[in-house]
Amino acid sequence: MTESENRDYNEFIKGIWRDNPVFVQVLGMCPMLAVTNSAINAIAMGGATLFVLVGSSFLVAAFKKWIPKQVRISCFIIIIATFVTIADYTLLALVPVVHKELGAFIPLIVANCMILGRQEAFASKNTVRLAVMDALGMSTGFVIALFTLGAVREILGAGSLFGIDLFGAAWEPWVIMILPPGGFLTLGLILLVFNWMTQRKQMFMEKVAEAQRSDS
Amino acid sequence: MKQRDPELLLQHAPFLRQGMTTPTAMGDVLIALTPATLAGLWYFGISAVLVIGASIAGAVLTEIAFIGTERRGESLLDGSGLLTGLLLGLTLPPGLPMWMAFLGGVIALGLGKVIWGGLGNNLFNPALVGRAFLLATFPIAMTTWTTPDEAFWTFRATNFDIPFTYTEVDGITAATPLGLMKFEQQVMPLSNLFMGSTSGSLGETSGLLLILGGIYLYIRRDLDWRVPVSILLTVLVFSATLGLFDSERFPTPLFSVFSGGLLLGAIYMATDPVTSPTTPTGTWIFGIGIGLLVVLIRVFGGMPEGVMYAILLMNAATPLIDRFTQPRVFGHMRGDND
Amino acid sequence: MTEIITSDKPAADQDPHPARLIVTLALAGLISGVAIVGIFEATFTTIAENKARELRAAVFKVLPGVSQMQKLAYLDGQVVPLPPDASPEKTIYAGYGEGGKFIGYAIPGEGPGFQDTIKLLYGYKPADRKVVGMEILESRETPGLGDKIYKDAVFVGNFADLPIDPVIEVVKKGRRDSDNQVDAITGATISSRAVVRIINETNVIWLDKLPATGSEPVMPAGSDEVAHD
């Protein structure tokens, strides 16, 4: 692997685990809590966000030299809003049922701070290639987080996954899981597990380091 | 640097100690709840044992599982988990599947107490957290009330539903007095409410026994009398005021006090020392707030009963109330902050 | 202009001329506008078709036996086929069977539910004075409880053959003793009542405006469009 490929890989992979936009940065909470009541909604939302983020990062990185810093935020927002509108109309035309479920949350992608954050913190300072890798990694991390939440909530709240019945008619759905409180509960518990795992890993690494020190 | 059992015990004043500790206080509450629990058993038979047993098991097992080897393990012996389980059990309908009651106990302890850092740190009453979760999660099972007049050994089939399933009951359900009032404009005779022979959750049926337990707690000084008194007075006065406008539509003051979970909530849940204010003024505000909310939710809200949400909402306001009602330190001027 | 100024000092700590900022923003806005108009034009037909198809499906569902429909509006004191240039607030749909035979009206109604506004469409046969079908178009009722107003086939079935006189009533499940009554959903009394109340209220608005039986608007031959949206 050459050095530049290695760099690409690093920018991509960091968004999935180490800097995951949801589990680590705790960004994009509005769509995270609002539209994850089923796996399919979560995937659609994640897909729309991926499209917007990758598109915006590409354009911002490509035009960064021509955007004066005084109006950069306005320019980013114009670019993001354009992609959001395109995503909105495309979803409405192709999958009207999903669009109806997601409702106002598609236009609200424009206010997702993860997207503006990536433009300001990364795309406007890096090459097109790295910006796109970063955007791909971040939005994949976002999709994974949305899907995890959506799947847990749909399985418990409706006894199904992607609309396919998992447990038969006798299953008593946990109604709270598809209501807003269920989003908060599930997200809180997932963050708990995530932090616990990170902590365990850190403690393990420290132990290994100590053992190596005492060996030498 | 945890140091336990120090050889030299250093203490500051006061050196005179009262015998009251967490375990004795919890024990007193358990004793005070015994008559009402027995009444639940009397009216609902074996189902009461199953539901309350399952919720206690859920609460206590969760406490054991989470608290583990930490120093906080001591709180297992103080009976607070047992009490949480019992209080939760008393707010559940008799026909609830045992697995739901068990899950409620797990949530009450896990989300209501352990996650906040154990007894004394929780913002909300754990038993009510468990009940709120169950009500939002299984709305049908939690509002299906069976009649109390079956023989003691009649098993309610839904108690034995396999975990994660529920069979809906048709026909043999009976609305609670508050449900009847709200949806069918029928008023239950007061004597039934007082003695407890109405449908409802396990512990909210007999007003008489709940009040007796409250008096016992007051005599044992485990309970701040201001809380139940302010809640009940507010409900009485507010209901009477509403009654002046339209006595047909609004329930009578006494009906309001004796129906539903008001007595159970006012005497045993709102008085939880952890989640209620510490200052006398604050306690009055807290009680009046609960009373107002109960009547508002019952009369103008979509649900027939509102005691649980009223208490949880005022629990959330407790830190704020405490902050605004701190007494002036002796020797300081009014408005003198430090 | 810009170049003269920037040549004096290092570019980094120098403000660009305001004109440059305006031009950049204007350009960005222009490109964005073109892109949005493009996507709107590209998807417009599909979106309109989807909407029309959804509406047709709903109308055909609440009026069994219907194969053609047209939009009606209340104009100048009578219910007439919607003229192309008018855009009244409230419209209803007339459904026709094979050969253009009039069957009934599909009437949209809306009102407050337990959580949010419920929008529904119901089929009404003036000849029998009966509701013959009901479809919820939009609602945010509690999943598992209130959403049974469209998920529970038994509840929806209540509206398949329901006389509207004197008014439709809601009764507790199992207590039905008259044709104009609807069984409420256990645990979702408020949502059930909301649906019935919406239908009753919409009836009050429309029923005395509808033309007498036998003189309903005629389906224009050859057209089968939900025209002029």
Brief descriptors of the model:
heterotrimer; A: 216 residues; mainly alpha; 9 helices; flat; C: 229 residues; alpha+beta; two-stranded parallel ribbon; disordered C terminus
Distance between the termini of chain C: 53 Å
Distance between the termini of chain A: 32 Å
Mean pLDDT of chain A: 86
Largest sheet of chain C: 7 strands, antiparallel
- What would you report as the Rg of chain C, rounded to the nearest angstrom? 26 Å
Count of domains of chain A: 1
Percent helix range of chain A: over 70%
Number of strands of chain C: 9
Alpha-beta classification of chain A: mainly alpha
The largest sheet of chain A is: 2 strands, antiparallel
Please trace the helix and strand order of chain A, writing H or E for each element: HHHHHHHEEHH
Which spans of chain C have pLDDT < 50 for at least 5 consecutive residues? Answer: 1-11, 225-229
The number of distinct structural domains of chain C comes to 2
Residue share in helices of chain C?
A: 25-40%
Please state roughly what percent of the residues of chain C sit in beta strands, choosing from under 5%, 5-15%, 15-25%, 25-35%, 35-45% or over 45%. Answer: 15-25%
- Computed CA radius of gyration of chain A, to the nearest angstrom: 20 Å
Instruction: Give the strand line-up of the largest sheet of chain C.
Output: 2-1-3-4-5-6-7
| Percent range for β-strand residues of chain A | under 5%
Shape of chain C: extended
Write a structural description.
The complex is a heterotrimer of chains A (216), B (338) and C (229). With 216 residues, chain A is mainly α. Chain A contains nine helices and two strands, in the order αααααααββαα. Chain A has a two-stranded antiparallel sheet. In chain A, helix 3 (39-62) packs antiparallel against helix 4 (72-94) and helix 4 (72-94) crosses helix 5 (96-102). The two termini of chain A are 32 Å apart. The mean pLDDT of chain A is 86. Chain B has 338 residues and is mainly α. Chain B is 55% helix and 0% strand. In chain B, helix 13 packs antiparallel against helix 14. Chain B is globular, with a radius of gyration of 21 Å. Chain C has 229 residues and is of the alpha+beta class. Chain C folds into two domains: 1-8 and 15-62; 104-209. Chain C has five helices and nine strands. Chain C is extended, with a radius of gyration of 26 Å. Residues 1-11 and 225-229 of chain C have low confidence and may be disordered. Chains in contact: A-B, A-C, B-C. Chains A and C meet through helix 4 of A and helix 2 of C.
